[in-house]
Amino acid sequence: MATFFMAKSTPRSSNIGSSSASPIVKLADDHLFTIMLLLPVDSLISFAMTCKRFRSLTTSDTLWESICRREWGSTSVDAFKSSINTNNNQQLPWMRLYKQVSQLDSFSCHKLPDPDSDLMLPTPRASHSLNFVSDCLVLFGGGREGGRDLDDTWVAYIGKDFQRMLKWQKVTSGIPSGRFGHTCAVIGENLVLFGGINDRGMRQNDTWVGQVVLGENLGITTLSWRLLDVSSVAPPPRGAHAACCIDKRTMVIHGGIGLYGLRLGDTWILELSENFCSGTWIELVAHPSPPPRSGHTLTCIEGTGTVLFGGRGLGYDVLHDVWLLQASEDQLKWVQMLYNLQDIPEGVSLPRVGHSATLILGGRLLIYGGEDSQRHRKGDFWVLDVSKIPSIKEQSTPLNSRGLQANMWRRLKAKGYKPNCRSFHRACADHSGRRLYVFGGMVDSLLHPAEASELRFDGELFLVKFELETGAVRC
């Protein structure tokens, strides 16, 4: 990637009018543009160095906006554009932005809201759910002091602009019933909640759909929850599983802790009806597949697949493996992405459970926090760059770990506010992927911070923001 952004050297030849020139130089610019959109970035680099005309074409911000859409997803690009206060006719420097995102190595961190604020806030908790939907943060449930569950739903309107102060509103309680270790995935403008564990240790396997309704002047009117009709077929009850949306009306779940504390390794797909009034659960039986685990993460990346990372396995070991769920020949298949911790700088700290894995700008995953096998909380941030992972069709042999490790993982530096190390918190990003919100979790006790067994529930909300330069605008 570094080679590309240094590619301002003299082109090899500018004599494109000779009789021996390649037929490609005779193509019109719009045809060349179509071809360039199909090229990997490394191939585009080589293309740019052949002649002045091609170099001029490959530095077009119109081209690079299309490349950003291809690799980051159109939703992320459109949200990013709407968050920049520029003239509608002004072209953003997409080539420069692509370079910044590709080389991103740090972020700023801010605590929200101000500690002196008198605003009503959710109580400290862990193993809850936190989602960004309809321009709002939605928080539900979780566990609290004394092993008790929570059944409250909180909403904070954020909108499209960064706000230092957020106003939480408690909108419902009692529906769904109290639980922790559940999952809640965003599908369009809906939330789909599944499973969890109540304070009596009972595992759940019910499925709920939630929707935010905004009132006048952006006041929250309500968040409605309703039980989804899934007929008689549903995954076995569980908590501490992982879930995410993989299509406009499809959700996947994996693993978790089932009855009698047994860790599960099954994969289930939920197909929702067009009006989200009903759904059908189907078990995905595939070989190979990720081993049983809990406290792991599933994150869907547009155009790539669904990434599973980490968790706690059958032997109580904390894991660091990466699996990719992709469509191949009209079937979903699991493929393990092999790598060696020893090949990654500071990679020994990667194994974890109770972390968060959030899709951020650039189609990358931001891994934060969690704990190791001794229950020591973590406060590090890692980027997993799945764009470096070949598709299933390109994999004829197991991936070379040394070839992947240099590009696949990168540890980021934090600037500004220093949050406590934590596990079983929750995180979500806005539509642009530039702002990540983190709430709650388990942190070290104030009285005995050195003791791994001394924990407390946390109730702070903080923001992770990726700073980018867009010429006259810093965003």
UniProtKB/TrEMBL annotation:
Q: Does the keyword Phosphoprotein apply?
A: no
Domain (F-box): residue spans on this chain: 21-67
Highest taxon listed in the record's lineage: Eukaryota
Per UniProt, the keywords (alphabetical) are: Kelch repeat
Task: Spell out the protein name for this chain.
Answer: F-box domain-containing protein
Organism this protein belongs to: Populus trichocarpa
